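Ticket reopened. Same input as before:
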Amino acid sequence: MLIYLRMSKAKKEYKRITVKSLLDMKMDGEKISMLTAYDFTTATIVDISGIDIILVGDSASNVIAGHETTLPITLDQMIYHASGVIRAVKRALVVVDLPFGSYQSDPKGALKSAIRIMKESGSHAVKLEGGKEIKDSIKRIIKAGIPVMGHLGLTPQSIYKFGTYTVRAKEEEEAKQLIEDAIMLEKIGCFAIVLEKVPSDLAAKVTKKVKIPVIGIGAGNKVDGQVLVIHDMLGMTKEFNPRFLRRYMNLYDDMNKAISKYSKDVKSGNFPNSKEQY
Ligand code: KIV
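Engineering reply: fixed in the latest deploy. New output:
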């Protein structure tokens, strides 16, 4: 009977995703889908496709601006991207990365940056990378009523400290610290945590220990949800091939074919034809 009830339980319909919906999803065992977007047109498609959280990630620094790291992107640029995304979105929760340099110096500065994002883009929440070293900044932002998503494990804004993008927290000491940080983030009021590139057993442990949703990227499938960078999962990027990445399309080649054909058609005079003009 119990099994029958569990199986027949209808999936809840969420008209609008809030931080509360995400907690409900974790409680109900419903996985959370999260994907990046950085502009209006893409965010429109991501939103109607049913993604729960749209992340305006500082990965825009890589996939939009072509930088090697996420460090150069500015607060103004993040606000510009987020403003386009928010104009498109009707259902998803929109989370925006606080970029490198906009929150590390002190809690007051961190709050100022978070307020600019919320006020100037109209987004719903912010994400910050790090654990105990940014605890006071996170507390200050949450106290102002701004929802915060944490980000632990591989934190790309600290790439020059790590020196490499390999899997984090394989050693016991770092794994212990990561668990402590996750518990701390929950305690001070974060509504969710992104766990990037850590062993799946560790991610599973963290997911069990905290009541808030844990969203993984390269963290296995025993977490509450998954996030990917949209350019990677659509196959627009060719060089980036981590084990955790599943490509759902091969847009690099498809776009290349389409654009080459267009170029040939223009040069041959085939485009526009008689029906494609006034
Ligand atoms: O900036 C980003 O896209 C991210 C995800 C990889 C989680 O932080």
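Residues 36, 55, 57-59, 97, 194, 196, 217, 227, 229 surround 3-methyl-2-oxobutanoic acid (CB under 6 Å). The chain has one domain: 19-247. Please confirm and we'll close it.
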